[in-house]
Amino acid sequence: MTNENQFLKNKNITEENIRFYHEYGYLVARGLFDPAEIEELKRDTAKIFRGEYGHTEGMLPAIENESDVDVLKKYVAIHFPHKISPVIKNYLFHQAVTEVLTKIVSPNLKCMQSMLFVKGPGKAGQSWHQDEFYIPTRDKSLIGVWIAIDDASVENGCLWVIPGSQKSGFIMPRIDNDSKEYADVDTVDVSGYPEEQVIPLEAKKGDVVFFNGYLLHSSLRNKTKDNFRTALVNHYMSAESMLPWDQDGKFPLTADLRDIVLVAGKDPYAYRPIADVNQPYLRPEVLKIVKN
Ligand SMILES: O=C(O)CCC(=O)C(=O)O
User: Is-above-0.85 flag for pTM?
Assistant: First the structure.
């Protein structure tokens, strides 16, 4: 995709960017996080997986003098790191990110999920999916904010997207996955899309990809020998929409899961208390089918 409107200019979102987002379902902001912010996130990643914010089930005991690389090699990702790390929590409110989100999602904005991928050498990618399959909003406002903490290339497993695939506005059925590229046992079948419409979004550390909750996306296995592909992905939606999210059956279905962080504007449901039900957990290396 050669359309320049996919890129923010000077970190500011323009009318052309907004139109591009609605047409194609994603935007790229080069260098939205500065080197000091990336360094802070990098240090925090090691701290989280070393268990310095507390033990998360499945974390292996720290070995004396173990290097960060050796620690991080053992994991794929942690979900909800913002629940334990004040650094990650703080970055949910990143000003330049919020600026973009309030223009393309809503002036009233809430975050319900963070995920920190380390994806070391050899680790599998995520099969084709739409995030609203997992996190259903009422107004199709879900958006992923994918922050590159390391350079992400085709070789180490960057994001792939199908621009415009969000436009159908429906959730596509899933079939068995037999590709070794992916950790998942199922996937959306994307063979109906022309090959040239399926594109990688390579990124340098500090770049941010914004993508719509209906956009088909995936990532391949990290095929490098010594290269991590660290990325923080935070998910946001309009505060106006309720969030009937049962976490793939983990919690009883409620009309509106209130385990959210209000990031901008007003919360129309502020009369209902905020919940704290999600706990950080390690992403397993192989993922099971979660829904039919
Ligand atoms: O970063 C990746 O490898 C996949 C991220 C993803 O699929 C998501 O955030 O929904």
Answer: yes
